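batch_manifest entry 22 of 60
target: Asp23/Gls24 family envelope stress response protein
source organism: Actinomycetospora atypica
requested by: lab member K.T.
priority: normal
notes from requester: please return tokens only, no post-processing; we will run our own comparison against the previous entry in this batch. if the run fails, retry once and flag.
--- input ---
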Amino acid sequence: MSTPLGNDDDRSGPAPDDTPTGQVPVIPPAPATFVPVTERVTSTANTPTPGTGRHAAEEPAGERGSLSIEDVVVEKVAVAAAGEIDGVGGAARRVLGVSAGSNDGDGRPRATARVSGETAVLEVRLTVAYPASVRATTEAVRAHVRDRVEALTDLTVTRVDISIAALTAGKVSKGRVIA
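--- output ---
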């Protein structure tokens, strides 16, 4: 006689007449079979294929593209670097060669930059706190601005021209320091 589970010969669960009314017979899982691994897995689905996409062999830097640093970026680095020197203050903005504000040392120095290839020429306008030595202060600013611009932009600074807008009375507060 045949049962809902198949032939009587390959029954693997309780007989249908042994199950209470309204319940479905439970069929135990088939025994697990062991398949020995004979080869080693060396890649996964997420491993990139060598030589494709962003994992391709790197080309020399000159062949990957170019980098251009705008004048305004160099100007901002120069302004920040000049402001790191003690006794240096800001200069008033100029409109048509005339100061538009006060040269009281508050604020930040001004700078303009001209970048050509891998070289930069800078012009910095600032105030110096009296009685500091103008020569010593400008030499310190020139060296520090050159070092910071070259370190941060990898440009060669060929010249740093400094204009002293005014000597200010008292000590000028030190500006922000870039670490």
